[in-house]
């Protein structure tokens, strides 16, 4: 049997993490010592090894619980997490490519006069950005550099009124209050 400090040290976790896992129903001690210390069995050690693996793979506490409670749910939860990570990677790659293009354009002296709203949106789509990725892009641009965002929108030939509407929507999206972009 292992005491909580021994188990924490073995897995490189804090004592409070193990207490949290107990509170969340992921890992409860198998027993208590005469002095009232939590005691963990070899089975508990194996369960904690699984919990640590799932958490390192990016599963939330809720997803980890679902995997541990259901043998048939394990593959489903893992597939969903794998798909979510794939989508995150694709979105980040699209943003990376877009930023690299923007830096190239900036180093060449700014956007050519021929780039308008339709051309810009087509370039974003060609870079693999969907509506959600574009919304995130606008929200980040507005959050990090609002005046530059405004100037950029106007450089695309967008009217002042439309630029203001996009900026208001972007600011709301950045604050987590997003509404669909018109």
From TrEMBL:
Any Pfam family matching the protein: MerR_1
Keywords assigned by UniProt, alphabetized: DNA-binding
PROSITE patterns: HTH_MERR_2 (PS50937)
Domain HTH merR-type: 1-70
Organism of origin: Geomonas paludis
GO function terms (MF aspect): DNA binding; DNA-binding transcription factor activity
Protein name: MerR family transcriptional regulator
PANTHER family hit by this protein: HTH-TYPE TRANSCRIPTIONAL ACTIVATOR MTA (PTHR30204:SF90), REDOX-CYCLING DRUG-SENSING TRANSCRIPTIONAL ACTIVATOR SOXR (PTHR30204)
């Amino acid at each position: 049997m292992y005491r909580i400090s021994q188990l924490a040290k073995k897995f490189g976790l804090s004592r409070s993490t193990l207490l949290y896992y107990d509170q969340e129903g992921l890992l409860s001690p198998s027993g208590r010592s005469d002095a009232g210390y939590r005691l963990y069995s070899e089975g508990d050690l194996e369960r904690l090894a699984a919990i640590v693996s799932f958490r390192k793979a990016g599963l939330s506490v809720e997803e980890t619980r679902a995997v541990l409670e259901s043998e048939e749910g394990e593959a489903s939860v893992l597939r969903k997490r794998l798909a979510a990570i794939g989508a995150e990677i694709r979105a980040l790659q699209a943003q990376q490519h877009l930023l690299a293009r923007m830096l190239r354009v900036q180093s060449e002296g700014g956007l050519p006069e021929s780039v308008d709203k339709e051309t810009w949106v087509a370039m974003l789509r060609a870079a693999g950005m969907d509506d959600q990725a574009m919304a995130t892009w606008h929200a980040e641009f507005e959050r990090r550099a609002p005046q530059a965002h405004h100037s950029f929108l106007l450089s695309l030939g967008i009217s002042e009124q439309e630029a203001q509407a996009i900026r208001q929507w972007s600011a709301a999206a950045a604050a987590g209050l997003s509404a669909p972009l018109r």
